[in-house]
Amino acid sequence: MIAFFLPWVGLVLFMPPFVKLFDNEHKLFGVPAIGPFVFGVWGALIAIAFLVQHFLRKAEQAQERDEGSGR
Amino acid sequence: MAGVDSCLGGTEVADILIVEDEPSILSSLEFILKHAGWTIESLTDGESALNKLSSELPKAIVLDVMLPRRSGFEVLKEIRANPRTSALPVLVLTAKGQQQDRRTATELGASEFITKPYSNAEVVEAIRRLLSGETRPDAG
Amino acid sequence: MISGNLVILTAFAYIVVLFGLAYFSDQRARRGRNGFLRSPLIYTLAISVYCTSWTFYGAVGSAANNGLEFLAVYIGPTLVFVGWWFGLRKLVRISHSQRITSVADFISSRFGKSGAIAVLVTLIAVLAATPYIALQLKAITSSLRVMLASDSGSFAANLDDSSLALVTAAIMALFTILFGTRNVDANEQHHGVVAAIAFEAVIKLAALFAVGLFVVFGLGGGLTGTFERAAEAGVTFVSDRDFGSRWITITLLSAAAIVCLPRQFQITVVENADESHLRTASWAFPLYMLGMSLFTVPIAVMGKALFASGADPDMFVLTLPLSANQQVLSLFAFIGGFSSATSMIIVSSIALSIMVSNHIVVPVALRSQGFNANSRPEGVTRLLLTSRRIAIVTILFLGFTYFWLTNGSGALAIIGLISFTGVAQFLPAILAALFWRDATRQGALAGLIVGFAVWVYCLFLPAFAPGNVILTDWVNNGLFGWAWLKPQALFGIEGIDPLVHAVMWSLMGNSMALIGVSIATENDPVGRLQAARFVDAFRLGSSNQSSYIRSSATLNDLFRVASRVLGYQRATQVFDQYEADRRDRETAEPSPAFIADLESELAGSIGAASAHVILSQVVSGDTDAIEEVIRMADETQQILEYSQRLENTTTELQSTAEQLRTANAQLRQLDQQKDEFLSQVSHEVRTPMTAIRSFSEILLTHKDLSSDQRQQFVTTIHSESMRLTALLDEILDLSALERGESLWTDTDTDIGAALQRAVDVCTPIAQERNFTIISESVPRDRIVFANSDRLSQVFINLITNAIKYNDSDAPFIRITCSESDGHIAIDFTDNGPGVAPVDRDIIFEKFARGRGEGDMSESGSGLGLAISREIINRLAGRLELVPAGETGACFRVTLPLRAEQQAAQ
Question: Which of C73-87, C229-243, C483-497 has the highest mean pLDDT?
């Protein structure tokens, strides 16, 4: 489920009007806020993707084990 | 042969009751059993055989399976169900050669079982055994 | 000061290192020790061939001009990879099971293994790659120019841009040929190249990081410091063009490109060794891109702050360290950029050359008569390699030509986006291939053509406009001066960014053509089969069903073909394997499964469409085969639809099962009837036999019988024998009737006469028992088409039955007749006991005797009514038991009258 929604959530966050919210004069660490926002969302997507594939693998391994013991 | 009759205390009860609907077979059985020295009573259907048995008790019965009105198996079942007739020796004759018939006959309590066509001696032997109280080893 | 010769030497040395790395990796892989080479890490690094010199140099340029727009180029792929579970995984799964060799192969394979689509996709890919390769050439040339600027003594410094680019292109062509076309691999996997690309990926990331760290911390004094220094210099980070339609468009384009670009398809899909590597790539590749983009903005703002406005922002990555006199760092940066350019050129041209050789050269060669006649064992392999080498040279030359024609105009990023838009035309077809079963070959072709045309017109050609009068006129005034045909403002819609404009029109036209034509057309059988295999890839697993059912090809034929494509050695391997595997060694005919395997083996070398053509030539000399393919495709389709609508069809399944059960029960009943019949026959035979045997024994053993008795017994034996004979005759008669054999000939028969004859025959028996036969309204001159003997037989049987079973005091039978609807009906009504309700249904069955108290001596075989009914049925009539009066039975015989008499009525 998460694997399915992840790209779409990412798409929404990166697309206007959402991304426009951060496209202003605010500064963060001396950098226009938009930079940290884009990189932040990007990094979050990567982190979630990592977790998703990690758990998917775990789940599959568990499933294989189940099938293995079932036989 | 009349001497055998007297065993039953003067009543006119035949030694053997034959129930067979095929006239030619019936007449041949009558001939050979009479020649073997028994008195014979003949009937051609199951219903009348049972009626007969309610009043008279022969020493043995020769019973065909395929009978009009009541089949031989039904007759046999009634005979075994009635305490008065349950010990009566019964020779079952059948023209159906299958094992199933033999099994049914044995289960219902036939004393002897012979498949048609038979040899006359075979029938006479079987009735002798019935009357002497023996049973054939394979008749159970 | 860096010596120009040192720069060039370093570049050469780097290429030699790369080549060595590739060579040894290949050797390792050949020896089967490719564990590390086939790891998810190497795979992920190889995918980063996406980050070309456009990323390395161009992103900074783009950031300097257009703010954060450059990020969109990485966000698209990030989304695709993060969502790998739904798109990429299916793509890879299908490509593995179908042995796909390129993006053109993928699309053509899905759409009925169409050669036309393969050619079109290849053409688009080559054309779209041209600006991209030009971009790399421009990057190398510009970077060399920057590096050499300080050393006018170097020989390279005296060359102009074009010559420099040409030399670069030539060297690249040479190395690509050495890298990529040494042999033809069954799976088009290039272990050595992948290893080299992965190495380059590390180099370019490290180089960019080094420059980035130097700029931020060396020049800017920290992140905040960088922006503050930039602000002091009057440089503000522009963001006014951000996040508009271009942002959306580029995100979409880059998402499409990560799949559609031939080199990305090559690395991500074709070179994928294990589907699970996608898991790692799903987060690691976006992470790599994030790393590559991290320092882009700081470098851009710093460059703008330090240099005059005339400086080329594309080269900030080089010029910043150079200006600070960081020679080693700038050389490293140069190698990084060089890396990113060369990796792109190598992989791109390999992927494109495979497409060109598999989809254009081989099919053409296959059609030419000369090739078929020529059966050199190494034929196709050599042809493939030669054509690939030529293709590589051609592709690089085209790239150079583009560079030369456009005079190196335009920033790197803009050139790259032209390419992206070109390959994005594959996207609708690929999506349809993956998810839309009803997309057809014609639809895909139409979509590709429309998209391609719009792209060429709106984006590709206008790029040449500067410096070309005709093109400039086009762009400004439209083709033929029609304003609505202006390439950058179609239909008068002005004011849109040219890129957005071209992407919008091309993809919209593409998709609409694909959808519209697909709806209007039907898939052919192969198309349907492939659609099912692609769309249902996960459901079908990797089963590779054969499309050759019956083959007329012998193993020898196939071997000859296979050895031409795969080479003698590999072909021998494949066939030996087959010999070892197959169970029946009797036939010389290859199994369909083997042919399918062989096709995918060949597809690995020459693409699905060509492999299909080449094997079809050999295999389907049999015209029935195509019928069967169609049938099978239909069935496959049906089965798939079946499983898709499982819930709806459960009832259907149940009814099928019910039908099977019913059929089974009927069979069992028939079997039981057969047993019963045999048992009945046995009984019927044994009964007379019993009497015969018994009386014979009596005659044999009793010598003292009276002659009367003797006479009586012999008579019985005789009559029982007769009865036995009659029984056997009747059984044979009935069985012949049931088999439908013609035992008699029918003629025009007077039914009244036949009835009279039957009555005459029966009268003596009837009189014997005081039985009255009443013939009322006997038909006169009624003609039926029948055999009069058989008809009489039926009547006699009915009358004697009535006599036999009648126990009334004054027994009689009444025969009446009536006519209606051209049929004559004769009723035989008696006053006997009738037929008991339980017997009504079975009375016509074999050996079913009435249970009434008949005269047992007269009992027949029990076959009479069964035979009678068969006879009447054969005469197109009916014999039935109709309800009679209070007592007795009524049998009715109905027969059709002759046509003339029907008319006479």
Answer: C73-87
Mode of pairing for the β-strands spanning B16-19 and B60-64: parallel
Residues β-bridged to residue C878: C894
Listed ranges C162-176, C465-479, C518-532, C603-617; the one with the highest mean pLDDT: C162-176
Give the HSE-up count for residue C838: Cα atoms under 13 Å, Cβ half-sphere.
Answer: 4
pLDDT of C518 over the 70 cut: yes
Residue B53, pLDDT > 70, answer yes
CB neighbours of residue B135 within 10 Å: 12
- Residue by residue, what is the 3-state secondary structure of C771-820? CEEEECCCCCCCEEEECHHHHHHHHHHHHHHHHHHCCCCCCEEEEEEEEE
Q: Is the pLDDT of residue C27 over 60?
A: yes
Across B99-113, C570-584, C597-611, the highest mean pLDDT is recorded for: B99-113
Q: Where are the domains of chain C?
A: 4-26+42-421, 425-522, 544-644, 648-739, 747-904
Element at C710 (helix H, strand E): helix C707-739
Q: What residues does each domain of chain A span? A: 2-70
Cis peptide before A17 (omega within 30 of 0): yes
Separation between Cα atoms, residue C176 and residue C181, nearest integer Å: 8
Over residues C76-99, mean pLDDT: 78
> Which superfamily does B20-114 belong to?
Response regulator (3.40.50.2300)
List all residues 6 or more positions away from C397 whose beta carbon is below 8 Å from its beta carbon: C169, C173
**pLDDT of C484 over the 80 cut:** no
Domain C4-26+42-421: assigned CATH number: 1.20.1730.10
* Two tokens, residue C365: 């060669």
Q: C494 — alpha (psi -120 to 50), left (phi > 0) or beta?
A: beta
Listed in sequence order, the DSSP H helices in chain B are 2-5, 23-36, 46-55, 72-81, 99-108, 120-132
Contact of chains C and A by CB distance (3 or more pairs under 8 angstroms): yes
> What is the end-to-end Cα distance of chain A in Å, rounded?
29
Q: How far is CA C57 from CA B136, C54, C70, C299, C857, in A?
A: 111, 6, 11, 10, 118
Q: Which of C547, C545, C544, C559 is nearest to C618 (CA)?
A: C559
Collect all residues with Cβ–Cβ distance below 8 Å to C798 and sequence separation of at least 6.
C828, C868, C891, C893
Q: What is the pLDDT of residues C311-352, one digit of tens each?
A: 777 778 778 777 777 778 888 888 888 888 888 888 888 888
Identify residues of C whose CB sits under 8 angstroms from chain B CBs. 679, 682-684, 686-695, 697-698, 701-702, 716, 719-720, 851, 853, 856-857
**Per-residue pLDDT tens digits for C270-305:** 777 777 788 888 888 888 888 888 888 778 877 777
Q: Is the Cβ pair A34, C251 closer than 8 Å?
A: no
Q: In this structure, are strands A31-32 and C890-896 parallel, antiparallel, or unpaired?
A: unpaired
**Is C648-739 a domain of CATH 3.50.40.10?**
no
A residues 9..68 contacting C (CB < 8 A): 10-11, 14-16, 19-20, 23, 29-32, 34-35, 38-39, 42-43, 45-50, 52-53, 56-57
Residue C431's Cβ-side half-sphere holds a number of Cα atoms within 13 Å equal to 15
β-pairing, C747-750 vs C783-786, is antiparallel
- Flag if A34 and C68 touch (Cβ within 8 Å): yes
Q: What are phi and psi of B43, to 5 degrees?
A: -135, 160
Domain with residues C747-904, CATH architecture: 2-Layer Sandwich (3.30)
Lowest-confidence pick of B72-76, C573-577, C774-778: C573-577
> Ranked by mean pLDDT, which of A7-21, C172-186, C242-256 comes out on top?
C242-256
Averaged pLDDT, C7-31: 79
E strand or H helix that includes residue B93? strand B90-94
